[in-house]
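call fold target=Nucleoside diphosphate kinase
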Amino acid sequence: MEKTFIMIKPDGVQRGLVGEIIGRFEKKGFSLKGLKLITVDRAFVEKHYSDLYAKPFFNVLVDYIISGPVVAMVWEGRGVVITGRKIIGATNPLESSPGTIRGDYAIDIGSNAIHGSDAVESARKEIPL
């Protein structure tokens, strides 16, 4: 069965969106296989977002993710990666449809509440982290 990695970012945790976000995945019939409330360190975030290292916003992103606790989750179900991305919405909240997590709750492109694996291969890499 397919699995994906979902992380509620510090702004989502601080604003009390954890239950709402979990509910959206449950309503789609996905199974929550693991959940941790953690504060991550710089090394973890740099490894997790290593594909963005050359981007000009990389250090801002790292500082943001280590600014507070995150909720790391593993979800399982048929098509959970693609459907999860649809539930989450576009990275840029201006491009996210109403009804998606980011369309409803993102503050800006940096504080966009949630991260989700963008492909099955990404999920395989992210889940063990």
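return ok
Residues 18-27 form the longest helix (10 residues). The chain has one domain: 2-40+66-127.
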